[in-house]
Design a protein that fits this description.
Length: about 300
Amino acid sequence: MGCGITSESMKHYEISWKGHCLRLGQRTQIMGVVNVTPNSFSDGGLFFQVEDAVKQGLKLVQDGADILDIGGESTRPFSQGVSAEEEIQRVIPVIRKLADRISVPISIDTTKASVVREAILAGAAMVNDVSAFGFDEKMAGVVRDCGVPVILMHMLRTPRTMQVTPEYDDVVADVKAFLKNAIKKAIESGIARSMVIIDPGIGFGKTVSHNLQLIHHLYLLHSLEVPVLIGPSRKAFIRHLLKDEAKADIRTDSPVVATGTQAAVAASVLCGAHMVRVHDVAETWATVQISDAIRNSQQAFPDSCS
C-alpha cells in the first residue's frame, strides 16, 4: 500500500473548540500562510507591514483557506531566531485585525510560549509549533491552559543546523517515532489527543529523497491516531527536482515552482494528508477539489460539522 489511499482507509477526525470546528478526512483542509517577516524563504518582506499582511490574510480566506497560519519568525534553513518581543510586535497587530474580520481559525506559528499567550488573547485559536515543544519547556502547559489545538512538527536539530548533512537510519520510521513521542509528551502534559495534529516537517532537516519518501509513505503516520498536516509549498526539494542542471536555482515565486507545489499537494492528498499548508490558496483549492474527488470516489460524505 502507498499513494492511492481510499475513502475507506482514510481516517476521519473532528476537532471542535471555542466556536470552531474542523472535519478532517472527508475534505482536505487548507491552511494559508502569512509570514510577517523580512526573511522567510518564500515571501520574506512581502507582508512585513501590518496592512499588507492583513490584506493577504483576507485574500487567502476569500480564496478558500480553512485556517490562517500567522508567523513572525523565519524558520528557513540557516536562519537565526528573533526575540519573543520582536515576534509579538510583528504578529499581534495582524492577528487582532484579522480576528475581527474573518471566521476561520487563526493559527499562531511560533515556538515560544509567551508569543502563544499574547496571540490567543489577540484572537488566535490554534498553535503551530515546528519544534514540537522542543524549544520552550513552558509551551505544552500554555497550550493546555489555552485549550486550543496544536500542530507538532518534526525537525532535525534547529533551523540554523537542520540542513547540515541530515541523516536517518530510516527517515519514515524515525520521523514517525519522533512524532509518536511528541504526541505522548502532549498527552502527559494534559493536552487531549483529540487536540493534536502532526506534521512530518517537509524540508526541515531532510534531503530531496527524504521528502519524497515521507510524502509517498504519509499514510503510515495514520497509525498514530491523529490528523496529519503537510507543508510542501515552494520547498527546496521542488525547486531542485525542476531545476535544469545548467541553470541557476529557480526562484520560489516562479510559475514552475507553483505548478510543482500543486503536484506535491495532489500527491500528499492521495497519500493521506488531512491538511495542507500552502502559500497559494486559490490554486490549492482547485487541486484538493480534484484530489479529494478521486480519493473519495467510492464514498460520499457530508461537508459540514454537526
